[in-house]
Every structure is written in structure tokens, then in C-alpha cells.
Amino acid sequence: MDTNNKRNMWQFPWLYKESIAFLLGILLVSTLLQLTLGSFDFYLLHFPVNLIIGACLIVLIAVLSFVKDNPIVNWLSSVPLSVTLIGGLFILTIFMGLIPQFARVNTDLHIHMDHASFYEIVDYAITKLGLKQVTTSWPFVFVYIFNLLVLGLVIAKRLHRFKWRDYGFYLNHFGLWLFLFAAGFGSADMLRYVMYVEEGNVEWRVYDNHENVLELDIAIQLHDFVMEEYEPKLAVVNKFSGDVQPENKPAYYQIDEKNRKEILAGWELELQEYIHEAVRQTDTSFQAIPMAGSMPAARVKVTNIETKQTVSGWLTCGSVDQFVMPLDLDSTYSLVMTKPEAKRFASDVTVMTKDGKDPIRTTLEVNSPLRMGDWMIYQYDYDHALGKASRMSGFELVYDPWLYAVYVGIFMIAMGSICMLWLGNRNRKKE
Predict the structure, then answer these.
(1) CA distance 166 to 159
(2) Which long-range contacts (CB under 8 A, 24 or more apart) does 68-71 make?
(3) What would the pLDDT profile of 79-137 be if each residue is shown by its tens digit?
(4) pTM assigned to the model
(5) Residue 427: is it exposed, middle or buried by C-beta count within 10 angstroms (0-12/13-18/19+)?
(6) Would you tell me the crossing angle of helices 79-98 and 138-159 to the nearest 10 degrees?
(7) How far apart are CA 112 and CA 314, in angstroms?
(8) What is the pLDDT of residues 168-213, one digit of tens each?
(9) Sign of the dihedral through C-alpha 372, 353, 381, 349
(10) Residues ≥6 apart with Cβ < 8 Å to 275
């Protein structure tokens, strides 16, 4: 075997070995930056800094695309480096999917190795390496920037050999570059606030991360807050410990007027009457009156399976205006009703802006946000202590002026992929 023709490492042209070594190098350097400086602050790139950097990046790509016969430039636009960088970005994305991500993480952590558990040591390492905030970690930033550079150079060099039949390639790659740039650099201009509004009031003020009051160019008037609830659950509890029975496997009965009988912790329960919005008529009876302070109430018959002892009566989970009323079963156990869970909550609002647009009156629900200019408004919260009697509603307001650019990029990627598949299929038929 002739060993004289064996290719040495770092001998041009650089291929996959050199590209992987380069990726490992930038990951090492960026990890050291992460450990010493903490996470990268993308908000330093807010407008117009992101546009200036974008313009400089495009100029650099254009200049490099005219450099001929330079092995480094040729490698920057090569398939091995492109595949390697995409692979690096894919691995970081996997970390982002496997490890819970947080908007804010305290990176100034200290841990005593002598007393720390294995889980605490691992959690500490994950936090310091930025894996709980992958998109703001230095490794992600480095790989992301190099992907933009390499992808842009691939597009620019292809443009030097422009052919109309390559429109699928141009759509796909231009769309991917636009998507990556808008989603990354555009995140610096994204703002996210939570606004709380009382019924009948108009609010335009929010608090930032430092508890400073900010006045926005958008205001919300809350006309009404409404909530629909699921039927509550019934459970047998120990009066002294408060534990739901049986303790090793707590059992609940979801009130269902079609299924009125259930076995709970050795007791046979029979639902005789249920009122979802009830108020006290006497100390031991209820009547249906829909109102803000009403509450679920149930009349039941409960029989101990072993002793055949029977107890009947009303019970309720109470409300902001009325007391809880359990049903005593014996000297140790009581039957109680849980608080009903929210099925749907919504806000009747009018949204106004300073730019002179007509106010919009709409109903905001959890899965039905409103877009107003560059703002997205989501139903977010309410006063959980008051439940359906809440006169306050919380809204999440997200300002993202780059969202349309992201959508355009996604559309171009989709159209380019369809065109490339169609052209490839047509060429195969010709063959």
C-alpha cells in the first residue's frame, strides 16, 4: 500500500475532519466564555445594532464571495463545513429539547462539593454551562453566527453562477437565512410584559424586570371577566391529618350526574342532588342562584361498606362569600369537595393604541390571542383566590416587530422545498 499519498490533517482542501475539529474548537472557546462571563445578553443587539451587524455581515459575505482560489474561503462555503455546523446547531437544539429552558436563571451559583448530592452537582454544571438557556449561551451564539456566515457565502457563490432553474434553491436558502437572522437578531427587539386590569378600568402601564413602571403605546379596557368551571371532585379525608384516603393511593369522585354512584375509601357514595351555582337557603340547604359569590353544592348519601352506617346531607367547597361545609362521616373521616378547576376563562376587552388605529373590542381567551400591530395579546391570568368572582384579568403582551420576517422566511423555505422536490421528480421522469 502506498502511504506517500496519505492525506495529512490540515492539508488543503479541508474536509470533514478539519471541519469537526474547527467546530470543537469554537465550542471549547465559547464554553470558556460561558463559564467566565455567563450567558450572552441578546438585548445588547437591539435596534439599530442588529441591522448594523446584519449589514456588515452581508457586506463581508459579498466581499468573500469574490475571493477566488483561496482555500480558506472555499472551505467556508464547502459542504463539509456546512454539514458540520448544521450538525452542531442540531445537537444544541437537542439539548434545548431535553433540558427544561428558563427565561431567567441565576448563574451566580455556589455549591459546596463536600455536601452536595450528585443531582445538585449535575444541576449546577448544567446551569453554569448555559444549558438551561441554550439560545443565550455562548456556544449557541458562536455556532449560530458561523451558520449565518457559511449559509450566506453558499448563497452568494451560487448567485455568481445564477440560473433561473435554480429558483427552488434560492427560495429555500434565502428563506433559511432570513429565518435564522430574524429569529436570532430579531429576538433582541422582542418585549414581553404582563398587564393586570380591573373590570371597568383602562390600563396602559406595566412593570419591567426591575419593577420599574413603564407606559406602553397600547392600552386595554376590561369590560367583563367570565369563567366556566368543571364540576368539582369529592374525596374522603382524615379530619386530623387532612390526608385524602386511602393515603397510599388517594381516590376522588368527579361529580357526574350521569354516574351518581362511586366507591371511595371503603364508603359507597350516592349523589342525590347537585347545584353548580348555589347559595345557602338555610344552614343545611341550598338553592340555585347564579351570582358572583355562588358555589357548587351537592347532597349525597354515604354508606360505610363494612358497618353499613349511612350518613346523608349537603356539602360544599365554599366561595369567596360563603364558608366551606364538609360532611362528617364518623369521628375520624369527612367527605369534602375540592375547588372546581377552570374549564374556560375569557375577558371582554377593548384594545387601543396611540398610533390612531380604531379601537378593537374582542373576547380574549387562552388559545385565542389578538394581534394589534406588532403586539400579540394573550389571556394570561386572573385572581385565583376569587376564581369566577375575579374582577381582575391578567394579559401577556408580546412585542415582536420581526415576526413577519420570520413568517416570510418559513414561507420561502416551504415553497423552495416544494419547488426542489418538484424539479427533482421532473428530472427523474426525463431520465
Answers:
(1) 10
(2) 71/12, 71/13, 71/14
(3) 999 999 999 999 999 999 899 888 666 655 566 656 677 788 888 888 888 899 999 99
(4) 0.74
(5) exposed
(6) 150
(7) 55
(8) 899 999 999 999 999 999 988 999 999 999 999 999 999 987 788 9
(9) negative
(10) 286, 287, 288, 296, 297, 298
